[in-house]
Amino acid sequence: MKRTIPGLRTLRRLYATFFLLLFLLLLFAGDFSRMQGYDIPLFLELDPLVAFSGFLTSVTVYKGMILSLAVVIPTLFLGRFFCSWVCPLGSLHHVTGLGLFTHRPSASHAANSYKPMFRWKYHLLTFFLIVSLLGGMQAGLLDPIALLFRSLTVAVLPMLDGLGLSVYPRTPVFQGGLLIATLFLLILAANRFMPRFWCRVLCPLGALLGILSRFAPLGIQRDVDLCSHCNRCLHHCQGGCDPHAAWRKSECHLCMNCIADCPEGALRYGLPKSRSSIHLPLDLNRRRLLETAAASLVMLPFMRRSLSSVTTDLPTIIRPPGSLAEEDFAKRCIKCAACMRICPTNALQPTLLEGGWEGIWTPILIPRVGYCEHHCVLCGRVCPTGAIRAIAVNEKIGQKPFDTPIRLGTAFFDRGRCLPWAMDIPCIVCEEVCPTSPKAIWYRLITISNRDGVSVTLKQPYLKPDLCIGCGICENKCPVGGEAAIRVSSIGESRSTTNRMLLKASP
């Protein structure tokens, strides 16, 4: 007689659907998130890989990361439940796989068996953890929650907005959106060749949870006396953990499909008994793992010896208000794009290679696309790792009890493109939109005779650098096409002690 837990597979599906819908709701509800300011990073704060990598880079666990214990502690006792019950990207892969992987049942048995390529994720995890230990936060490149958040924010939601399904206060554009969309679609398309290819082969968070689950006392147990070796348990296995043979605990997603599919009731979840089959340890070649570790040890030093925003103050790298100093910022930012999603003016964009390989997909402000709203501090409120500090409006604009505002950089005039300076055309847009008080941009009235001998009175603009906060609204609103006649540089930013206006005198 079949012995199983009634409705367990249905319960797991309900949980997975609930968490996927919750993730999408928090992501899509842009206006609500802007009012509350704390809803977006929930799943990112549950992420153990983000928390552990952040601890290795900065020897600090940001306050929100304590929520990751809600995943770590149950995993130590129950097994790798997160991947199948909670992870929104895992649920998306499962749904995608149902539509793409359409082979006959015999082929699904072969596809759902364990394969040596499943080791790759452990090598990727080794790389990310060692680079983190050396002070480089790169886990966000392939962390599933950060990857899904970044892909939906930069690629999918703008596409939906372009189709008329508005989810942004304004139609957004993101640089590198096509590249991020292509990578995301390729990851999903891999389910055509193997169900949950990403989860089984590449996911570094899955690898971390797989290692933690090795200590779990509970798990899938197979009664060798009842098992008829029909292999039906492989038909819907999501982890490729071989429940029909020597079960691989570290690969099991606890989807419970094998228990529901077993016609003999030979599979159950619980503690092992005397007639339970053996469990295999991690399938890792120590020599290959050491080679991965050795390669990882030299990777970050190579990055740090190339031109990047960490090694050099680059004028185009304008970080959001409240950002840590660049080296500390690089140790914390996981490239999740939560700040880009919450930015009301679309000013924050993912970097490509302008900040070096280490800074790829981290946020920068591009004033020609958008500007930093004077009283907006939402980016710091949603940053899950503290790369952008949570600041008050008073601190940002320099009102009591704060003496000076936070400066993102300094604006500079290009008089060869400025209408009043170069073309004798009246224009005071930059002065009108400047939000500081007193205004950083001011003008002088002059009267000149143009080429035709006509007398023209102009207001030629000037900038007082110590009043400029680098918000970029002047560059954004400048009516000159192409490159603006006033452009913001990161020089003079508050977070840096070296990126100053004047160079030090030679000794």
Record keyword descriptors for this entry.
3 domains; 10 strands; Alpha-Beta Plaits; two-stranded antiparallel ribbon; mainly alpha; elongated; 9% strand; 507 residues
Describe this structure in words.
It is a single chain. The chain has 507 residues and is mostly helical. It has helices at 8-28, 30-36, 42-45, 48-58, 69-78, 82-85, 88-100, 105-111, 120-133, 144-162, 177-189, 197-202, 204-213, 257-261, 286-304, 326-332, 338-342, 378-382, 393-397, 419-422, 429-433, 473-477, and strands spanning 219-222, 247-248, 267-270, 279-280, 348-350, 363-365, 410-413, 441-449, 455-463, 486-489. A two-stranded antiparallel sheet has the order 1-3. A two-stranded parallel ribbon has the order 2-4. The radius of gyration is 27 Å and the shape is elongated.
Unreliable sequence segments: 31-38
Total number of strands: 10
N-to-C CA distance: 89 Å
Overall 3D geometry?
A: elongated
Structure annotation, total helices: 22
Helix content, binned percent:
25-40%
**Structural class designation:** mainly alpha
Q: How is the topology of this model organized?
A:
Layout (H helix, E strand, L loop, with lengths): L7 H21 L1 H7 L5 H4 L2 H11 L10 H10 L3 H4 L2 H13 L4 H7 L8 H14 L10 H19 L14 H13 L7 H6 L1 H10 L5 E4 L24 E2 L8 H5 L5 E4 L8 E2 L5 H19 L21 H7 L5 H5 L5 E3 L12 E3 L12 H5 L10 H5 L12 E4 L5 H4 L6 H5 L7 E9 L5 E9 L9 H5 L8 E4 L18
Helix pairs in contact: 1-7, 4-9, 9-13, 9-15, 10-11
Provide a compact summary of the structure.
With 507 residues, this protein is mainly alpha-helical. The protein has helices at 8-28, 30-36, 42-45, 48-58, 69-78, 82-85, 88-100, 105-111, 120-133, 144-162, 177-189, 197-202, 204-213, 257-261, 286-304, 326-332, 338-342, 378-382, 393-397, 419-422, 429-433, 473-477, and strands at 219-222, 247-248, 267-270, 279-280, 348-350, 363-365, 410-413, 441-449, 455-463, 486-489.
